[in-house]
Amino acid sequence: MVSMSIIKKWFSAAQVFFAAITLFACVAPAQRIEANIKIASSAFASVEGRLIKENSNQTILNWSFANSIAGIENLGARISDFSLSDENNQPIPFVKLIGGEYLASADADAFRYGVNLNLPAEVKAMAHVSWLDDEKGLLMLGDLLPQSGANNKAVSARIKFDLPANWRIISSEKNTGENTFDVKNAAKGIFLVGKTWRERELVNGKTSLSLAIAGEWQFSDEQALTAAGEIYAEYQKLFGEAPTDKVQINLIRLPKGTKFGRWAAETRGANVTVLSADMPFQTQSVQLLHEQLRHEIFHLWMPNRLALTGGYDWFYEGFTIYQALRTGVAMNQIRFEDYLDTLAQAYNLDNLQNRKMSLVESSKNRWSGASSQVYARGMLAAFLCDAALLGESKGKRSIAEVFREIYRQHRAPNKPEDGNAAITKILKAYSELNSVVEKYVAGAEKINWETSLESLGIEANEDNLTTKLSVKKKLNGKQKHLLNELGYNNWRKLSERRK
Ligand SMILES: [Zn+2]
């Protein structure tokens, strides 16, 4: 049901996710920004505000803006006409070091500047940085406000937006007045602005899921909201709790003329933002939406709710792709063959890499060429863990147990820990996962999955240097049982239930 070109997307360098691995609003904000953001014309915002320090003895001389987010560089160059003043409104001299970085000669109280919000050159960047066009925009405080927070502590903010006539603003942040919001952690604050948004809301237990959508799609707003709600409920069942009480899902059309099937997404804090072109046919369009939501909604728990730090992207991207695929089969959104095809594709891609890298190393180089290894090899590691757990427990345990255990031990506000060390420790607590950790997470070995495939009754055939997977013709009882656990017969069960 999901075409290969869609799934391939995950393994191309184009798919990116903002590493929202700092804390989930669990430290007391050190500083506070009060600012007014005015959308003066299309593609430009002017910002003025002040910084309220943690203690008044503190002197802040370095002022800087985010310069690199998710591999998108040189963002500081978008800042113009920067100025600082003291509490008596007297200008404070400063020198500009590079774009978006300034060194003041004395302690400053207030700031003022402009931000160029032209659409980024690459459409995928539209999921990760602020932009504005003539009728809408996505504003992210992470790149709009100065990063004055000392010691990486969260900076809170009160922001008032000044919008063009007839424009609205949508956000999961706390609305405290007309176009005014209190934001606990400015780095996570996301605002959708524009005149064409349609809003829908769905309440799932304690969580409200809000959908903002604009433009014409091949699916209805209702279909999109229902899909998001069902996927959210599925993951809530897996983890046993909701990660947050308010989720904002933004579905934004990529600019006209973008190729079918192109998309980029990011889940920052409790905001899921998907920018996508549509597909030529309705069924493909719905499948793509499902796939986007299955992946991004999982991030609300992992990594966004985890108190883990550092570059453990191999886990929260690779294992997320795998679980999203597993969930697709479980929810009958994709066929078991799609699951096998995706695994084979990841395997083929990993095979092509001349220099194999450990997953820990590839995560360090995610934005400099190792992205496909983070995704493909990370996903294969997740599959090998799943197969080992299923095989060893005769189908009683699966990868789901590992997710639950990681979540239980490391969700915020638990103590922050290094992600690679914490995940490795949990995986290693299962003796059957030791070799996966040693060979692929810490080591750089070629993927060897013969035994895992055999235990599940799956065979790999090579044709023209390309490996394909299929279910064996003859299966023993154990293999049938494990395949069933993986969802092999899901469609059959479903059609029987319908009879
Ligand atoms: Zn992701």
Summarize the entry for a quick read.
By secondary structure, this protein is an alpha+beta fold. Helix content is 33%, strand content 25%.
Describe what you observe in this structure:
- The chain is α+β, with helices and mostly antiparallel strands and 499 residues long.
- The chain folds into two domains: 1-21 and 306-499; 31-196, Immunoglobulin-like (Sandwich), CATH 2.60.40.3650.
- It is 33% helix and 25% strand.
- The chain is built from 14 helices and 23 strands.
- It has a seven-stranded mixed beta sheet, with no helix packed on it. Strands 15-16-17-19-18 form a five-stranded mixed beta sheet, covered by helices on one side.
- β16, α3 and β17 form a beta-alpha-beta unit.
- The longest helix is centred in the last third of the chain and has 22 residues, at 371-392.
- The two termini are 22 Å apart.
- The model is unreliable at 1-8 and 12-29 (pLDDT under 50).
- The structure holds zinc ion.
- The site of zinc ion has 5 residues, from α5.
Give a quick set of tags describing it.
499 residues, Immunoglobulin-like, seven-stranded mixed sheet, five-stranded mixed sheet, 23 strands, 33% helix, 25% strand, globular, binds zinc ion
- Total discrete domains: 2
Helix content: 25-40%
* Number of E-state strands: 23
Radius of gyration: 24 Å
Percent of residues in beta strands: 25-35%
Low-confidence stretches: 1-8, 12-29
Write out the strand line-up for the largest beta sheet, numbering strands in chain order.
Answer: 4-7-2-1-10-13-12
Let me know the largest β-sheet.
7 strands, mixed
Based on Cα principal axes, name the global outline. Answer: globular
Bound molecules: zinc ion
Assembly state of the chains shown: single chain
Mean pLDDT: 89
**Continuous helix count:** 14
Distance between the termini: 22 Å
What structural class do helix, strand and pairing data support?
Answer: alpha+beta
